[in-house]
Amino acid sequence: MESVAAADVAAYYEFLMSSRRLDGVQPNVVCIGAARSGTTYLMGVLSQSEDCYVPPVKEVNFFGVFQRPFHPRGLTEIDYERLFVLGKGRSVIADVSPAYLAIGRAAREIFKYRSDMRIVICVRDPVERFWSHFKYYRREGMVAEASFEVFAKEALEQYRAGFDPGTDWAAPVMLLRQSFYSWQINLCRALFGKVLVLFAEDLAADEAGWRNTLGSFLGVELQPAPENYRNSSTTEPLDVAPGLLEDLRALFSDDIVYVQGLTQRQLADIWPSAR
Question: What is the pTM of this model?
Fold first, then answer.
């Protein structure tokens, strides 16, 4: 397809409307996150395969987010499927939206839409993911706080108080919550059965092996992603004050145990927070 310069889903939708190709296509794969765990690279890998289609705009964020009736100007399923119209005939048609991991209703909305959906969940050491997410938001101007320590302490306070951020994506607790993985892995397996969990640490250590695991799950051969889909978020060194690091690792300790049981991985081998 021709290159689409679109800043958001609305711009891409306008492109499709202007092309008059209005017969929608259902996606059959959804990557629900987590952010800063290899999802951009995953999108890049899929974009290189003739068997796969992903919209050129990452993070469609339909299910439970921009989906009617959850958004005042929400999209219908017909609107959503038009975003994938150029993928007609491909064996893999994917929605890569890391926000779904943070939205409790998203998995059930996906299941109501298509019960045979294949689900991919990318995970990463929870403290490193939270720290990397903050750094990205700060770099993009999405959070004003310059200190990770201040931001993380506020996130811990909000979490312990049971604060619900709704869809305030920049709320400290919203970023923190996206590092809890076990409940979504468990829920998606109960709903769909076909769930692949990918580790960002495996991507950093063995890119080809990570890619082959994804390709085997999808039933396609995958090539490396272009350079513009690569970033250093999965390899950057962690820089967190020791006391705060201990508090965060203690918070995630139970979830780490559950993830280890669900995935049958010895997480201490790859996650410092599991040691």
Answer: 0.92
Going across the sheet that includes 52-53, the strands are 52-53, 92-96, 29-31, 118-123, 195-199
Q: Across the chain, which distance is largest between two alpha carbons, in Å?
A: 57
* Three-class DSSP category at 98: helix
Question: Per DSSP, which regions of 205-257 are E strands?
Answer: none
* Cis status, amide bond into 172, omega within 30 of 0: no
CA distances to 133, 172, 184, 255 from 160, rounded to whole Å, are 20, 12, 20, 15
Please give the single-letter amino acid code of residue 3: S
Structure tokens at 232: 């250093």
Q: What span, in angstroms and rounded, lies between the C-alpha atoms of 191 and 187?
A: 6
pLDDT computed for residue 175 by the predictor: 97
**Is the Cβ–Cβ distance between 99 and 174 less than 8 Å?**
no
Below-70 pLDDT ranges, the chain: 1-10, 12-22, 232-236
Tell me the CATH number for domain 27-274. Answer: 3.40.50.300
